[in-house]
């Protein structure tokens, strides 16, 4: 397989996309004594990107009335009337009864969901009327409340005996491979554990090369697997290791076929611990969609990347508030192996509440 991949790379370049791979036997008698061959179908997209200009239609298209459309319009109208009424009522409230406070403003500015923010603020002393040392009390209480939402923290626990297998899954480009390299370097080089890497990301040649480079630098073995059966064999081969880290191809949350394939891959071994990798800067609504769609792979933990690029950490709090899942690591930059840390709930609560 490695030889075939090298040939594809030589013929089509690093950006070739692997469409299909298959092992087969050629020659021999009745399937015996045949030579094992590998068939790889690959392609490369050389077409220039076309810019298609779309002109607005000259007149509005004629549409046939749909009874559902009428119902939706009626609902929209009703909702906008209710919204106007609420805004009017809020406008008539005396200033001090409005739910506005500097801490609430900080929560909202940090993209904490308004419902979550209101719940966290419930019953807190009014920080506007506090002076001196008391002024910080409301903030400290709020930090404690946020930290209490973040108590389920658990990184990778090496087993006292046996092999721990951990897979990172998630959308494309969130930092799965880089995080695998950071984890491998920390566990193998800093803590002295026996580590092996497995990649199931055989979609692009460049993806395998990326992890191979890290594996060579760290000095750990790398296995490339093309099917659930090969993953099973690779895990069996490395059962003498303390930790096997499995890299997977980035998957679009909207692609059910890809997600089902990922689910089937991870189902080969019920002991694989799966971490869903999320970019911290993802908007809450998008993060919800990702969590919902990847839930078919039953991730046990959330791992947040690119904290250094995120303007706020509201999405972490919002997600944890609604899905009481364990949190594992935060990654804070591109440097391997340094830019990764186990989550600390008080530190994270302070970061969530930063001005
Ligand atoms: N700023 C910043 N960049 C990061 C971090 N982690 C990874 N990156 C960068 O994000 C980019 C994508 O990282 P990869 O590790 O290739 O992401 P991936 O999830 O494996 O991507 P696919 O395999 O294509 O789905 C690279 O340029 C990384 O250096 C981080 O914590 N902070
Ligand atoms: Mg990757």
UniProtKB/TrEMBL annotation:
UniProt keyword annotation of DNA-binding present: no
AAA+ ATPase domain ranges (all copies): 162-294
Main location: membrane
Subcellular localization, as worded in the UniProt entry: Cell membrane
Top-rank taxon, per record: Bacteria
InterPro entries: AAA+_ATPase, FlhF, FlhF__GTPase_dom, P-loop_NTPase, SRP54_GTPase_dom
Membrane topology: Peripheral membrane protein
Residue ranges of every copy of the SRP54-type proteins GTP-binding domain listed in the record: 163-354
Keywords, in A-Z order: Bacterial flagellum biogenesis, Bacterial flagellum protein export, Cell membrane, Cell projection, Cilium, Flagellum, GTP-binding, Membrane, Nucleotide-binding, Protein transport, Transport
Recorded coiled-coil stretches: none
Keyword hit for Nucleotide-binding: yes
Annotated function: Necessary for flagellar biosynthesis. May be involved in translocation of the flagellum.
Homology family: Belongs to the GTP-binding SRP family.
Name of this chain's protein: Flagellar biosynthesis protein FlhF
Originating species: Sporomusa acidovorans (strain ATCC 49682 / DSM 3132 / Mol)
């Amino acid at each position: 397989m490695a030889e075939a991949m090298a040939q594809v790379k030589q013929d089509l370049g690093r950006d070739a996309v692997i469409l299909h791979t298959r092992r087969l036997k050629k020659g021999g008698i009745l399937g015996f004594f045949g030579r094992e061959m590998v068939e790889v179908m690959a392609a490369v997209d050389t077409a220039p990107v076309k810019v298609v200009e779309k002109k607005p239609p000259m007149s509005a298209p004629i549409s046939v009335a749909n009874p559902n459309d009428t119902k939706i319009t009626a609902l929209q109208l009703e909702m906008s009337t209710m919204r106007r009424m609420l805004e009017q009522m809020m406008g008539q409230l005396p200033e001090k009864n409005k739910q506005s406070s500097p801490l609430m403003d900080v929560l909202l500015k940090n993209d904490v969901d308004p419902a979550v923010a209101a719940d966290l603020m419930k019953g807190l002393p009014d920080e506007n009327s506090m002076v001196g040392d008391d002024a910080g009390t409301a903030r400290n209480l709020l930090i404690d409340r946020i930290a209490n939402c973040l108590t389920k923290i658990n990184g990778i626990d090496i087993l006292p005996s046996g092999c721990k297998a951990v897979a990172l899954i998630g959308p494309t480009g969130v930092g799965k491979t880089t995080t695998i390299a950071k984890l491998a370097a920390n566990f193998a080089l800093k803590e002295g554990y026996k580590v092996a890497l497995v990649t199931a990301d055989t979609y692009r040649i460049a993806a395998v090369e990326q992890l191979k480079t890290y594996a060579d630098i760290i000095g750990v073995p790398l296995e490339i697997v093309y099917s659930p059966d090969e993953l099973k064999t690779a895990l069996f081969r490395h059962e003498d290791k303390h930790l096997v880290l499995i890299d997977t191809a980035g998957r679009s949350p909207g692609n059910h076929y890809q997600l089902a394939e990922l689910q089937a891959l991870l189902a080969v071994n019920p002991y694989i611990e799966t971490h869903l990798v999320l970019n911290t800067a993802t908007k809450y609504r998008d993060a919800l969609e990702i969590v919902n769609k990847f839930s078919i792979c039953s991730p046990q933990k959330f791992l947040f990347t690119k904290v250094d690029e995120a303007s706020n950490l509201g999405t972490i709090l919002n997600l944890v508030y609604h899905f009481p899942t364990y949190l594992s690591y935060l990654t804070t930059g591109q440097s391997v192996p340094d830019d990764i840390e186990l989550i600390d709930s008080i530190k994270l609560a302070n970061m969530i509440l930063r001005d």
